[in-house]
Amino acid sequence: MKSEKLQIAYIDGDGIGPEIITEARKVLTRMADIFGHQITFVPVLMGGASIDIHGEPLTEEAIRIARSADAVLLGAIGGDAMTSPWYQLPPQLRPEAGLLRLRKELGVFANLRPVFLYNELRKACPLKEEIIGDGFDMIIVRELTGGLYFGERQTIIENGVRKAVDTLVYDENEIRRVAQRSFLIAMDRKKELVSVDKANVLDSSRLWRTVVNEVAVDYPEVKLTHMLVDNCAMQLVMNPGQFDVILTENMFGDILSDEASVLSGSIGMLPSASLGSPAFAKTVSGEKSLHETSRSNAVFGLYEPCHGSAPDIAGLDIANPLAAILSAAMMLRYSFAMEAEATAIETAVGSVLRDGYRTKDIIDTDSGGKVTATGEMGSLVAARIALPQ
Ligand code: NAD
């Protein structure tokens, strides 16, 4: 097995962030020992932790360090909006402004959320047993930097009537690059892609569908279908097992991925990846990868759990570190093209759950009532990482 050097920037952030990232680093370090890799971890300050020291949520130096790493691992940022002094600051100086700026600076336009149900957590899934069936394992790819959330908006008064306007804009290059990324992911999975839009009403969706069909020509092995977003919302809870990779635009993805995420049991279980330009796929309009990686099929990315900084449980050693640990596994898969290493971590997580270990948020009868602490959970996963047979 080839030994690799990995340079990982990590952002503890606020609240439970330092606790869960400590565990993710513990697991990555163990993985490196077992597989013979070398990891350099470089700390980066962001959010409230950066405000406390630098007076701003993300410094230019922090951006520089993050950009020069191979990948970035993030805990979570932010505090209690009612009590934290960070929220007395103007919006551009609050913790969340740091995260939005970082995503923009890193050029991460494809947000991936795996929706996977560990068999051991079936009781935590809100669906009926007969709908869960053999379980589900899908990835939702959400376009992250265009569409309604980034279009021009205004609120005006016209003829004495208040009126608000939001604009939903996509150009073909924005659609093409996220479509390419989704087809590449589908190629590594079951080769099935569902593109979700509202092409019966919206021009932006019609362009979306046209461009996705154009990209599909380059991936003839992938079976592409189109689904209207309202139907997709129903299908996710009626028959989630039918999906493998779902591709959709920003707002549809925001809503669908939150709907799908509850199917996995707990927010403490949900990892995510936000990916930038593939260094290996065709470049879009001459666009260069932000980060030239030496690994031919790897891509720069920001990896973080889906949950926030959970200030209500910070410092209590009860936070579930599995979403952060599974985010680290995604990092190995997408930014380092280390499938075996990623799978070793995911398998170790499954093994720990199978043996009944549960943090407080996923406690059930299988644990025999015993609650596993944050640090213990990370150690258990690390100890079970093994080379593939
Ligand atoms: P949250 O996700 O932090 O917490 C919601 C609930 O889930 C809380 O009860 C919390 O205790 C629980 N929870 C979350 N993660 C958990 C884990 N790993 N293990 C066990 N329980 C967990 O959402 P919130 O309370 O709405 O937000 C808190 C702060 O986090 C806010 O400042 C918010 O802006 C910020 N936030 C940050 C991010 C990010 O950094 N990407 C994302 C969402 C929210």
Topology as a string of helices (H) and strands (E)? EHEHHEHEHEEEHEHEHEHEEHHH
Task: Calculate Rg over CA atoms.
Answer: 21 Å
In CATH, what is the class of the largest domain? Alpha Beta
Q: Could you say which overall geometry the principal axes of the C-alpha atoms support?
A: globular
Average per-residue pLDDT, rounded, comes to 92
Q: Summarize the amount of helix as a percent range.
A: 25-40%
Whole-Å distance between the termini? 13 Å
Précis, in short:
With 389 residues, this protein is an alpha/beta fold. The chain has helices at residues 17-35, 48-54, 60-68, 95-106, 129-132, 172-187, 203-216, 229-238, 250-261, 322-335, 339-354, 374-383, and strands at 5-13, 38-43, 71-76, 110-116, 137-143, 153-158, 161-166, 192-197, 223-228, 245-248, 271-278, 299-305.
